[in-house]
Design a protein that fits this description.
The chain is mainly alpha-helical. The protein contains seven helices and four strands. Helix 2 runs parallel beside helix 6.
Length: 196
């Protein structure tokens, strides 16, 4: 479950701001100013693990719009087998060590991360272009993040009665198959044993 406690925004390298979000009735008013920016399709948004951000915003009545870029996904396209942890990406591409997660100044830590994510976009975009993956990123991966976040937000409707009945049918079929195996073998044994 995603709880929105604040938003760190970076609009220029080295400049970021933190907007604390009040979880009470004032939540809607504390988001009013930023909502227009986040929903503006003309403004590109860059964020690490954007699916989680999209979900958290959606739960608060905000639909993230515009061209999206997620350094975590970009790095997955660049080095699929490597770690995509933000601290590793910052160290590898920006030669920068993030404040530790245990840092007591949450505002400073989140603003620092917003700034570094903003800076990572340029480096990773160049690497995507060099590897000819930029279209894959912009046309497939980033739109898919929004689709997956929307699916997760909406969920799926499950017919529990049908699934319960089907489960009983499958259990009956499994028992019949098990009995058939024992009959053909002429002896009972552990069917789950890989050695038999």
């Amino acid at each position: 479950d995603f709880h929105l406690t604040g938003i760190a925004i970076c609009y220029r390298e080295g400049e970021s701001n933190f907007l604390p979000i009040d979880q009470s009735e004032k939540l809607k008013s504390s988001l009013t100013g930023i909502k227009g920016i986040l929903e503006d399709p003309r403004i590109q948004k860059v964020g690490y693990n954007l699916k989680a951000t999209i979900l958290a915003l959606k739960k608060n009545g905000i639909t993230l719009a515009g061209q999206l870029f997620d350094p975590m996904l970009a790095h997955y396209l660049i080095e699929p087998e490597a770690s995509h942890d933000l601290s590793i990406l910052c160290s590898q591409y920006l030669n920068y060590d993030l404040l530790s997660e245990s840092s007591e100044n949450t505002k400073e830590r989140l603003c620092e991360r917003a700034d570094q994510v903003f800076q990572l976009r340029k480096k990773l975009q160049m690497e995507l272009e060099r590897r000819r993956h930029s279209k894959l990123m912009s046309d497939i991966e980033m739109p898919l993040v929004t689709v997956l976040a929307n699916m997760e937000f909406e969920g799926v409707k499950i017919d529990q009665n049908f699934l319960n009945e089907y489960s009983k049918e499958l259990e009956k079929d499994a028992k019949a198959a098990e009995a058939s195996v024992y009959k053909q073998a002429g002896v009972k044994f552990n069917l789950a044993s890989p050695k038999q």
